[in-house]
Amino acid sequence: MEQIKRVKRVQHLYERRYQTAAGEWEWRSKYYGIFTCKLKRKRRVFPLGGDLDAAKEGLALLLADNVKAKDFDADKEKKTRGYMFSKWTDEYFAKKVDPEKHGGGVEREKRSYKSLKPFFGNILLSDIKRSTIMEYRAKRLQDPIMRRGKQVVIEGKFKTISFVTVNRELAFLRFMLNMAEDDEIIEVAPKFKSKGKNSLIKSDKDRKRDRIASEDEYRTLLGNMRRPSQRVLIGLYETAMRATEVLKLPWAFVDEKAGFIRLPASYVKEKKRRNVPISPELQTVLDELKTEQKKVSSISGRVFTRYGRPMKSIRTAFEEAREKAGIENLHLHDFRHTCITRWAAMGIPQQAIMAAAGHHSIQQSNDYTNMKDEHLKQAFGNYTPVIQPKPLDAASDASY
């Protein structure tokens, strides 16, 4: 999403305000000189940085060069020669990214890059246009989902890559192109419309899910999983933590004496410290894991292990259990919604839920709370009965 407007009283100078592609909804401004070059009669767009005074000085120099009929393409060809998408992204991971600040986001970006590289890898950054991106999007949405070398089949149909996955990949592509523009590797990054039929990336609001696991679905899934995977699922159900947060959880974050899992800001996506209460069900799992790990000579320091070795994923185990149970349209991340909804139905104050879940706003917390009929019954059951035992008799029960 962006806005472009001309700077008042300065001809040929424009301000572009856009939202960052790294998940932060903060406005950033950058100035551009836009004019028609005298030599080739072409419309030119020059990035001039984020400082207004410096942008005015830079524009003055460009306009002076234009009067002299300078060939602006000569500098452009020299700068972009050999700067392919793969080289730019490899340089980003090697030199520009900060894993400590980025947390688990680095791994998500690397997964997106793995999918983007075969298509965009050998293309110059300056040659990546909106039409190129649309071609990738159309092709990618037709790719089958592969598990252990085989195509995933659900209800007799081959499962293809979801829009959410492609959306995540395109968001990373947008981030890399915007950063190339900021570093003046390219003049202007392609536009990623976020609204309408031709939108390349849907907003989070458009992708909001309201699916949660019922108590019966949760118990049925546990019944179709082996114990190591069961323990991870219990962790998801009881803590509202993300799957990667549970799987990579070290014992150093577990404060059993106080009854909390203490997640530092650097460990979680929202960069906000979280203290998650340890429920009795989760404490049982922790006790079981400690007893099991005492029997193993070498331990990784991770909480959730399989025979002492750290677990990387329960996706395959979850999908097999879901298929056996006949449960449709349920994802691992839906257990974050499920836990937050359960907490709300139990009458836990919203501020406490937000603190444990890491939410920054009430709206964000509301988006994760998906009350169903059973939760309403549970919530009202904690207070006075909704249905009176007998109708009120106006004559005998009047209070006046």
Description:
The chain has 400 residues and is α+β, with helices and mostly antiparallel strands. It has helices at 52-67, 72-80, 85-96, 99-102, 105-120, 130-140, 163-182, 215-223, 227-239, 243-247, 280-293, 315-325, 334-345, 350-357, 362-367, 373-381; strands at residues 2-6, 13-19, 27-36, 43-47, 146-147, 150-151, 153-154, 157-158, 254-255, 260-263, 274-277, 305-306, 309-310. It contains 16 helices and 13 strands. β2 and β3 form a beta hairpin. The longest helix is centred in the middle third of the chain and has 20 residues, at 163-182.
Helical residue percent? 40-55%
Number of domains: 3
- Can you list the strand order of the major beta sheet? 1-2-3-4
Mean pLDDT: 83
Write down the overall geometry.
Answer: elongated
- How many helices does DSSP assign? 16
Percent of residues in beta strands: 5-15%
Classify the fold: give the CATH topology of the largest domain.
hpI Integrase, Chain A
CATH superfamily of the largest domain: Intergrase catalytic core
Number of strands: 13
| Contiguous runs where pLDDT drops below 50 for at least 5 residues | 20-26
Rg (C-alpha, Å): 27 Å
Order of helices and strands: EEEEHHHHHHEEEEHHHHEEEHEEHHHHH
Q: In terms of structural class, how would the helical and strand content be classed?
A: alpha+beta
CATH architecture level-2 label of the largest domain? Orthogonal Bundle
CATH class of the largest domain: Mainly Alpha
